[in-house]
């Protein structure tokens, strides 16, 4: 017996706002939106999805799990995401690594990798 990865759940102070931000960042679409959860996917049946759920407390430490994005143009993608509200963060990465660490509007870190 095995399992299939269906989605990643993200705790959020404002799930709708964060879900719409990530949908724009990834080119995904909102497939479900209720007060208790907002789910985005690449398409209605596409997987995996991201589900944003409300939590009452703020995040206090570095994420233990994060997304890595691989655009065709790293510099342009970093600029686009920063223009959308992401910010550069230092999580202790060496200056010579090939990726850029950003945080979404609620402070969740993610990496933008160089083109393949």
Structure description:
The protein starts with 6 loop residues before the first strand and ends with a strand. It contains two helices and eight strands; from the N terminus they run βαββββαβββ. A hairpin with a 7-residue loop joins strand 3 and strand 4. With 116 residues, it is α/β, with parallel strands linked by helices. It folds into two domains: 1-56, Signal recognition particle alu RNA binding heterodimer, srp9/1 (2-Layer Sandwich); 66-116, 2,3-Dihydroxybiphenyl 1,2-Dioxygenase, domain 1 (Roll), CATH 3.10.180.10.
Parts with pLDDT < 50 across at least 5 consecutive residues:
none
Q: Taking strands numbered 1, 2, ... along the chain, how are they ordered across the largest sheet?
A: 1-4-3-2
Number of strands: 8
Fraction in helix: 10-25%
Describe the global form. Answer: globular
- Average pLDDT, rounded to a whole number, is 91
Q: How many structurally independent domains?
A: 2
The largest sheet, given as strand count, sense and whether it forms a barrel, is: 4 strands, mixed
> Which series of helices and strands comes N to C?
EHEEEEHEEE
Number of helices: 2
Strand content: 25-35%
Gyration radius, rounded = 15 Å
Would you tell me the structural class of the helices and strands? alpha/beta
CATH class of the largest domain: Alpha Beta
CATH topology of the largest domain: Signal recognition particle alu RNA binding heterodimer, srp9/1
- The termini sit apart by 34 Å
The CATH architecture of the largest domain would be 2-Layer Sandwich
InterPro entries: Glyas_Bleomycin-R_OHBP_Dase, Glyoxalase_6, VOC_core
Protein name: Glyoxalase
Domain VOC: 4-115
Organism: Micromonospora rosaria
